[in-house]
Design goal:
globular, 9-stranded mixed β-sheet, 26% strand, 18 strands, 509 residues, alpha/beta
Length: 509
């Protein structure tokens, strides 16, 4: 299988490069910019992409890779910081821009070997600019302000293409076309990354990892763990995969019974475990989000350990961890800030009795759904909105109590019911309600009330890495607000969150 290696220099768009390439049928992996040369050679990429990043190549201690060593492995595409690194390392000159460019910018192409048109709208995000080209490089395009925006050259017979703009973001017009020029023409990559090939690859990895072992599959009720459970059962057999679904008291309304029924209809060997009291006791008086996640991760492991006490044959724990979980929890380049610890990544205890098997760890959500469809999982299950592993614990802001959880469950059920009855559910990536740690004055039944407030959240997204808020019709919001304040005791105010990701995350905690 042809592969592309992406070296991450800290850009917020690095994951989008991998995402875009996979959409084009090309397998790609992200590595830290400092990934060893030997390991990079062993990966055997057909091309190497250098991502953007927040640093300036002129700064002391700026991330660095020797371009001549990399091009010895495969052709190179430098994006933003990657272009500046290529230029500086090969003898060109990079200077701070007189006019920094962020957002939409028009290019004028002087050479049509990469792009067929004369002008192009692109997405810029840089404070430095290339002033002098390396030897034997040529200018392909400039911005309206005259800044060099695309260059091309060869080293040791291999192509080096460098772009000051971001072809991976949706704002760049025909960005996929430019990426295609690099991967298909300069690197000679063949598009073989398809659901069937992904499934074949996952089957091989699971067999190599587990061999003759037995697996405990932790099911959460979400799409990811459901796909893992079905996948492992198909690969290893029902006798070697024992699933458990834990009622941690943090599930949505009636979800425990409903989801258990779904799992059994899919042919999974599943056991339901009611541990609500244990989880809520452990979370009592815990307010800080990271502590909540770590407590939940540890408590899950305790429940699993207890469950398998008499099952000596089980040596693996399977989880539905996805690529965005890993990226947000553990920075690939080791330098950027952790956004939040996902309970199934950084929230697990350091010492575990079970070894992990995470077959979806390198996949995005839509790839998981494609695998689920390939496995024959019904569409109504695959298209459920994502639900966080810590459940409603990260949607009850502040202290967690049974009363607060029940209030939130009732609000969330109304919101979801209205989304489905109005035909809006399928248009939205994720929608939910957040219980706020504040009380507000209201008037209900001619009396003064002083009750809880809730926030509605609904976003559109492709993979959860970036998201925008959904623009509801006013009548819909009016109806949902009316139902919640009329039907749910202890709530007298409803607000709607119109924050995109970034700057916010999808979940509030």
């Amino acid at each position: 299988m042809d592969k592309i290696a992406i070296l991450d220099f800290g850009s917020q768009y690095t994951q989008l490069i991998a995402r875009k390439l996979r959409e084009m049928g090309i397998y790609s992996e992200i590595f830290p910019f400092s990934h060893s040369l030997e390991n990079l050679k062993n990966f055997s990429p057909k091309g190497i992409i250098l991502s953007g990043g927040p640093s300036s190549v002129g700064d002391e201690g700026a991330p660095y890779r020797k371009i001549s060593e990399l091009v010895n492995i495969a052709p190179i595409l430098g994006v933003c910081y990657g272009m500046q690194l290529v230029t500086k390392d090969l003898g060109g000159k990079v200077i701070p821009s007189n006019k920094r460019e962020y957002g939409m910018t028009y290019l004028k192409w002087e050479d049509n070997s990469i792009y067929d048109g004369d002008t192009q709208m692109v997405w810029m995000s840089h404070g430095d600019t290339v002033e002098e080209l390396p030897k034997n490089f040529k200018i392909l395009a400039k911005t309206n302000s005259g800044a060099i925006a695309a260059i091309h050259g060869k080293l040791d017979g291999k192509d080096i293409l460098a772009l000051q703009f971001h072809p991976e973001v949706s704002h760049t017009q025909n960005g996929e076309h430019i990426l295609g020029k690099f991967v298909f023409e300069m690197c000679g990559v063949k598009a073989t990354w398809s659901p069937q090939n992904i499934l074949n690859e996952l089957t091989k990895k699971v067999k190599d990892r587990v061999q003759d072992g037995h697996v405990l599959c932790a099911l959460s009720g979400g799409v990811d763990s459901t796909v893992v459970g079905v996948l492992l059962t198909r690969i290893l057999g029902v006798d070697k995969v024992e699933c458990c679904f834990v009622n941690n008291g943090l599930l949505r309304k009636n979800e425990y019974e409903e989801v258990l029924g779904i799992y059994r209809s899919l042919g999974l060997n599943v056991t339901g475990i009611d541990a609500e009291d244990d989880f809520l006791t452990a979370l009592k008086d815990i307010v800080e989000p990271e502590k909540k996640r770590k407590i939940i991760g540890n408590k899950f492991i305790e429940v699993f350990d207890q469950f398998i006490k008499s099952k000596d044959q089980i040596t693996f724990l399977a989880q539905g961890t996805l690529y965005p979980d890993v990226i947000e929890s553990v920075s690939p380049n080791g330098a950027s800030v952790t956004i939040k610890t996902h309970h199934n990544v950084g929230g697990l205890p350091e010492k575990m009795k079970l070894k992990l098997v995470e077959p979806l760890r390198e996949l995005f959500k839509d790839e998981v759904r494609a695998i689920g469809a390939e496995l024959g999982i019904p569409k109504e299950i695959l298209m459920r909105h994502p639900f966080p592993g810590p459940g409603l614990a990260v949607r009850v802001l502040g202290d967690i109590t049974k009363e607060y959880l029940d209030i939130l469950r009732d609000c969330d059920a109304i919101f979801t019911e209205e989304l489905k009855s109005s035909g809006l559910y399928a248009q939205i990536w994720q929608a939910f309600v957040v219980l706020l740690p504040i009380r507000t004055v209201g008037v209900q039944g001619d009396n003064r009330s002083y009750e809880k407030s809730v926030a509605l959240r609904a976003v559109t997204s492709r993979d959860g890495m970036t998201a925008d808020w959904f623009d509801f019709p006013h009548d819909f919001l009016k109806k949902v607000s009316g139902r919640i304040t009329n039907e749910v005791r202890k709530v007298n105010r409803v607000v709607y969150d119109i924050t995109s990701k970034p700057p916010g995350t999808i979940e509030w905690e």
